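Friendly challenge for the regulars: who can give me the structure tokens for this chain first? No prize, just bragging rights.
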Amino acid sequence: MRVFEIQESFGLDSLRIAERDMPKPGPGQVLVKIKAASLNYRDLLTVTGAYNPRQPLPLIPLSDGTGEVVELGEATSRFKVGDRVCGIFAQKWLYGRPTKAKLATTLGGPLDGMLAEYVCLHEDGLVKIPDYLSFEEAATLPCAAVTAWNALVTHGNLRAGQTVLVQGTGGVSIFALQIARMMGARVIVTSSSEDKLERARALGADATINYKLTPDWDKKVRELTDGEGVDHVVEVGGAGTFEKSIKAVRFAGRISIIGILSGTTTQLNLIPLLMQNITAQGIIVGSRETFEEMNLAFAQNQIRPVIDKVYSFEDSIEAFKYLASGSHFGKICIRIS
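First reply, four minutes later:
Bragging rights claimed.
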């Protein structure tokens, strides 16, 4: 079978098609013919070596993929041949809190990922795809959608009438916009692109801010919320945006720290966090239980993931380059078979 591997060293130049033996499912495992995969920023960092420079190579990248069950190992009970399935991000994080041991089982590093024609996974590390979604649409869910759901619903306890600030228009941010609107919340979106802001408004954003035209976007957020600030901030910028996020959130509000697009290190004044009772929490995807809960809500409300482009398997490197450009709106997918 064909796979893409990060081979002898990190970098897109070392990402190549290779042949591997067809995997055989053991006890409790299923063989999945992969139909589609999607890219996350983590995948780009993994390929370039920025995520874990000590990651053993070769490695099949991509944590998110979907396909069809084609063979069952012994003692399997969750699936049957022909079922449409999706891998979960951390194969042993089935429920409850994350642990180091559970997060050592993530696909696309340290475990081989989904950029392959076939994968063999334990049945516990898979969920069924909602019937109304295509393979490409479902491939966008495991990281970006579950992260947004975990931030706003599982931990954030989002309620109708609250206000959410969403930074940017990448995969997590667009899912956060869709989830917040589904829950009856008001949404403010920031971006440097007027075209992307227009598309965000078409998806239901109540207000938008071009942060290039309005560098003090935190003040604009306050203005849009009658001086109160937002209830939730979906923080994907990192070091370059966190201080403004603190200024944009309301008293006793919540900042969900998800991305590091503008850096990882910043000097932080702790007084506002303390005196305004602000909760800042790191979010790292979610469990299988969270994934399945989200799928039920998505199916009930017919939420359709936003896909910017779909690349062929052979053009996977071009998909990574497009992700690196930052030009995408929503998710980037790869059709594998």
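The chain has two domains: 2-140+305-335, 145-282. The chain has a mean pLDDT of 96. Your move, everyone else.
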